[in-house]
Design a protein that fits this description.
The structure holds two protein chains of two kinds.
Chain A (H helix, E strand, L loop, with lengths): L9 E5 L4 E6 L7 E7 L6 E7 L4 E3 L3 E6 L4 E6 L8 E8 L8 E3 L3 E6 L1
Parallel strand pairs in A: 1-10
Antiparallel strand pairs in A: 2-7, 3-4, 3-8, 5-6, 6-7, 8-9, 8-10
Chain B lengths: L3 E4 L2 E4 L5 E7 L5 E7 L6 E6 L6 E2 L6 E5 L5 E5 L8 E8 L9 E2 L3 E5 L1
The chains are: A mainly beta, B mainly beta.
Chain lengths: 114, 114
């Protein structure tokens, strides 16, 4: 596979357990946030998003929590499966970033143990 | 539905050579983007096109040029490749620049400059 993610933090979880991946964002004016999943050799894949007027949003097996007070975002994956192994990163839509573009975190590698 | 298609998938160049990376989307999106992804770092914006007929610099534009050929296609050109441009390049699109909608990514071009 490609070398992306060589120096990323890694979270290892047992299959069937819940995973929590955290992200600190930089701009208090950011109003929209996304979690992406990136498998080796693939492009980022949209998982779930949340707007700044919400604290929590749930999808299928995934939940995103937003804490604007401390500028923190988390992704919870329920009943983690081997297919969840990937790099996960957050993105914030920052009004002041190059015409209101996204700022991307470096990511966390999730490793699911059998 | 192909989404965002990038060509080529892999390329090796010698220092000083030029090449164009191609990107096309079939989702009728107005905005398109070029990023580079390097180990341990978040995606960095090279150039973007908020709408057909416009292009703007992102965070790391030096050494690159872009062309928004039509609504579907957005190409990235390296005029004189340098080893520092060895990276994985991703093209993305979304409905509009100011929309709270996610970007959709292609699967990348892995570029090595010798």
């Amino acid at each position: 596979g490609e070398s992306v993610g060589l120096h990323l933090p890694t979270l290892s979880v047992q299959e069937g357990d819940n995973s929590i991946i955290n992200c600190a964002y930089s701009n208090s004016a950011s109003d929209y946030f996304i979690w992406y999943k990136q498998e080796s050799g693939k492009g980022p894949q949209f998982i779930i998003d949340i707007r700044s007027n919400m604290d929590k949003r749930q999808g299928q097996r995934v939940t995103v929590l937003l804490n604007k007070t401390v500028k923190h975002l988390s992704l919870q994956i329920a009943a983690t499966q081997p297919g969840d192994s990937a790099v996960y990163f957050c993105a914030e839509n920052s009004p002041k970033n190059y015409g209101q573009n996204f700022v991307f975190g470096p990511g966390t590698r999730l490793s699911v143990l059998p | 539905n192909a989404g965002v298609t990038q060509t080529p998938k892999f390329q090796v160049l010698k220092t000083g050579q030029s090449m164009t990376l191609q990107c096309a989307q079939d989702m009728n999106h107005n905005s398109m983007y070029w990023y580079r992804q390097d180990p341990g770092m978040g995606l960095r914006l090279i150039y973007y096109s908020a709408s057909e007929g416009t292009t703007d610099k992102g965070e790391v534009p030096n050494g690159y040029n872009v062309s928004r050929l039509n609504k579907r296609e957005f190409s990235l050109r390296l005029e004189s490749a340098a080893p520092s441009q060895t990276s994985v390049y991703f093209c993305a699109s979304r409905i509009g620049q100011e929309s709270n909608q996610p970007q959709h990514f292609g699967d990348g071009t892995r570029l090595s400059i010798l």
